[in-house]
Amino acid sequence: MTSEDLAISVQGVSKMFELHSDRRTNLKERFVRGGAKGSDQFWALTDVSFEVPRGSTYGLIGHNGSGKSTMLKLLAGIHRPTAGTVAAHGRVSSMIELGAGFHPELSGRENIYLNGSILGMTKKAIDASLEEIIDFSGIPAQFIDAPVKVYSSGMYVRLGFAIAVNLDPEILLIDEIVAVGDEDFQRKCFDHLYKLRRKGVTICFVSHSLPLVQTLCDHALWLDHGHQKAEGKALAVVDAYLREVNKTEADRLGQSAEEFDDSRSRRGSREVTIGRVEFLDANGTASPIGTTGEPLTVRMHYEVHEQVTEPVFGLAFHHESGTHVSGPNSLEGGMMTGTPALGEGYADFRMDPLLLQPGAYVVTAAVVDTTMAHVYDYRDQAFALHVQPGRRAAGAGVVALPGSWSMRTVSTSNEQGVPS
Amino acid sequence: MPQLTEIWTYRGLIGNFAQRELRGKYKGSALGQLWSLVNPMATLGIYTLVFGFFLRFPPPVAGNGHLKNFAVYLFTGLVAWNFFNAIVLGSIGALAGAGPLLKKIYFPPFAPVIGGAGATLYQAGIEMGLLIIVMVVLQNVSWTILLLPVLLALLALFALGIGMLLAMLNVKYRDVAYLTTIVLNLLFYATPIIYPISKVPSHKNGIAVREYYDLNPLTQFVEGFRDVVYDLKVPSAGRLLSLLVVSVVVFLLGFTFFERGSRDVAELL
Fold first, then answer.
1. What ipTM does the predicted assembly reach?
2. Are residues B105 and A94, on separate chains, in Cβ contact within 8 Å?
3. For a Cys-Cys bond, which of A220, A306, B65, B182 suits A59, CB 3.0-4.6 Å?
């Protein structure tokens, strides 16, 4: 790739920060302790290299503190690398913090000029886009000439964003864009980003929203504690990142489902009791995490203390938001339980595939008699189930409805572009 | 000096920082911009009362041959001093104040510093205007007043050079700001502002006191201001030349030092 096609070129970049506690910020320390260099060095980035082709969109992903924002600051020229080179070919604009540089006592209009010029706009350019900025920000007319200190935090950020998107950059750096404003404003922002992308602006952004990175980015970089874990096609990088995150989470949570203390809400006559609940994946391995689109078996361990006939096992899934998603039971599922022997056993509820969307759920497990009026044991919202995104980008909502798509043309029209 | 041209490139930003400083400063106060007049006049009033009335410092006769007014004499020197003082302290504050911003957006760190000096220049302009009006009323004016802007420009360069040096040092060692306040206080009394330079003995205990005293560029500046505004004479060629050389050299040194430190300033602030 020739250098003309590159908007950003980062070669072997490392960045070290000296930790604050070790800095000789006053002369006394300098004299008393001398100028000796301490060992409190923090390497925010270690040997990172990547290239961003002109006109493409690039995503930086990684957990908190992985060095994403530091990388963005190096690209913006705010910091310089300790080692390696950072080259940006073109006019760089950054949206690292919106509304930074607003003077609280100045009016919105005055701050547009101030902030615009800090971001590198000429007065002429601001004059030309002033109305567009005010319009885009959606700030009511009576506020635009009031000092920004009376603005709501939303108005403040929206004004900052409106200024930043009107900069006409060649390279745009964005830190965590999704956190701006309400639904309506976010839509406007994304529309604008797509517009910039169509215009050929190179966009480089940091985001924790993986679906966004997958849909918006051509390439992505995954940073982990300042090290470059993966770089390349956005889909592949996000995939690799997800797999790692899921694995770490599974390791953290261990095998058994997390059990909440339900001693107060637990009720029932206890002829049959429910012990632990396990979630088994396709290989039969227990893990507290399910994956959307893959098989999951819920295994309820029970113990029969007294003879009962036809007990009914039931489950309830609640989303963390409180929505009751589903409540399957063994009676409607057509399982005859007969007279289970005294002692321990388990009942399985198998889902293939798991239709719950990624998120946190709580599971209720119960065993009741055939009339469902008498409760043997009822463990209300006692078990945690985490659902992680599968290979496909996750959709919205709580449930992935099992449907299939098809289309067919009903009649054709000879006239181009005019639907009949 | 390739960076010097950057000052011109970023003139819009510098202007905006100056405006931010000026607009934001007195916003919300009832008197608003009037405060920029009230402040120096209050200082002037206090010094006049203490040094002219209680201590009875005799002012020298002014250029028109009959004016003898300590307040006016004092004001002339004070204007020059205030300008210097405000730029030096303002520079330190401007860089430190721009810290949070410099961490988030890239722009040359000299922009807020020079912008702040610009705002101070505006303030000094008001004081100068007031001084000239007083002089016209007292009929003590001459064409030499046209040299005032030249001296002001040189003093601006000199003060900015020192201000930029100290501002950058202050980023590394926060003591500098406190130390500067003390040194400026000393310097104020080591400069013939509230007393005439004729009070300084030429020799004392075999030391050529006056010679050392004259080495202070601020003495030369204050005397220069008095030359053109109070005594209505052209400063000596030696004084003008030395002021020109000192100002330019100090500015270039300060600016170079500032630029060398400015690459890492976002991390240290």
1. 0.75
2. yes
3. A220
